[in-house]
Amino acid sequence: MKKDTILITGATKGLGRALSYQLARNNRTLILIGRSEDLLIDLAHDLKARETTVFTYTADLTEIENIAALVKTILTDVKSVDVIINNAGFGLFEYATGTTRETTANMFQLNVLAMMELNRLFIPEWIKQKTKAHIINIGSLAGKLATPKATSYAATKHAVIGYSNALRLELKATRVAVTTVNLGPMKTSFFKVADESGNYERAVEKIMLTPEKVAAKIDQLLYTNKRELNLPIWMSVGSKIHALFPR
Predict the structure, then answer these.
(1) Considering the entire predicted model, what is its pTM?
(2) 223 in active site
(3) Could you say which of 21, 95, 153, 200 is catalytic?
């Protein structure tokens, strides 16, 4: 396999952590971005034991104005990046009227605007160098099949899907692929923030995806032109039926 460099946001927990372990190889460099320096250090220590080169960057990606400086530092350290996995994000299960303006703003900044800014800054480098690259944006089936108490979250993931679809068309003539990964409920700490009562997690526990299985699926689609990965399949079918027969 070629020596490549993969950037993962939200790398210290849930799917980001599972991806870090899944993608760790001795011919690969991982760039891990997260808010907790301690968790990043511990994760990097484990991955380096697998002979993987690891760079860690502690950053709050809701501070959009600081992303350009972060990217400049990364490109100074590693020269080039081949894959970006925009995984960082959070949600909240609350009615629209109960969701504060600040919460919605932070959700859009992390789930949407940070993703867009990272891609905006890396794409010109790939086009200039004519290198093969892959953008993987972690969306959600909530962006296709919205439910009550997920108004802000569903809106952000709908934005991720729409942005990715347009970006894919813009980059059609280049060597940059764009894939959206849309997931149903997954067994991570996501629900500790989204639903502190734990009721939703208990209700869907038997059908939840595991981050390890999702990470393995994402590993398989690297450097392909796959448009979307929708998991679980039965929920993806449900979203298509809903699109045709919304009632």
Answers:
(1) 0.90
(2) no
(3) 153
